[in-house]
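request received
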Amino acid sequence: MKMVETRPSELNLDQVVEKYRPVVSFKVKKSLGTQTPDWEDVVNEVITQVIEKVKKGEFRGESSIGTFIYTITSRRIVDFIRQKTKVLKGIPEPAVLPDPCDDAESRERARTLAEAIKKLKPKFREVLDLYYYQELSRDEVAQRLGISPRRVSERLNYAQKLLRKMIKQ
Amino acid sequence: MSMKKCKFEDQIDNYLLNRLEGGDRDKFEEHYFNCTSCFEKMEERNELIATIKTRGALIFKEEPMPERKSFVPAFEKVYSFFTPRQWATAAISAALILVAVFGVLPQFKRSTPLFYLSENEAVRGESLSLISPIIDVRTAPSSFEWRQLGQDVEYKIYVYNDKLLWTASTRQTKIDVPEDVKLLMVAGEKYSWQVKAFSAKGTLIAISSKVQFQIRATE
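response:
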């Protein structure tokens, strides 16, 4: 499952940037929240730093390129928050879920997804409601519905499988 | 997408729902920088959770409660109990009591206590107080507002009727109510709301009291 270890000499920077921009964006948005207007700047700064460091030979292949980029991303986020608050000492707890509804296409996808959820059988809708909307724990959901925690996970997984199918149609 | 399950997959929900702490969170983050399969699954799950969070009020809307039908005759029975003049007297008395309870008494209240969390945490001072709506309103409120609690604070608002109706997060001290949530708030019904404040580290630093308001039945 782990990505293939990359040797520095084999690194194609364009491919690296293309592949990791969404990953870096996700982490930055999750840490800063999409309400932070500067999140895109932070992503661009991370990418620039990655390119510079690789060009300077600072990526020596001791870790995977993913871990290398993760470290740069985390440090940049901590620095950003320090600059903003000047008091925080650690990495902040993620603020909000990255909002997928930030463009028309995603909004349309969210609308389709919402419609699909409405069409699910009540037993699937209720686990999604309790677990994701009301944020009960898996055990609490199990208790509320009188089923085993394992069954809760199965229903969640199956609900997502059904949704994936419905959306493809 | 590979069919083989990665051992980190079970943590996707916990990460997205902010249930992973320090080291576990860092490990998971480093993992998804290295595992395309987990990252793709997480993006998909994030879309699902965000959709549920933003549209849940509409998606999980329940059928109207059957007892609401008996409300109208019961109301008429009560209404015919008094003459209009008696009703006016009762209304004025009620207004005076409301003014006393919400207007005058709070002025005698001592300032809210200070509290300390740990060495690293700033002292956040006063408790979180809600601004509006705090009594009754004519129509479903288009926004909720509360007092600011320092810089870099994340607020989470909860609106309830019998159960949780809507929840959302913001860094502002005011939040607009989405149209679909407004549609769920009907005249004559009572609602309550509450705000929790979190530091940038995600620590809960203050909880407001739960304030109830009613949307007045249209005449």
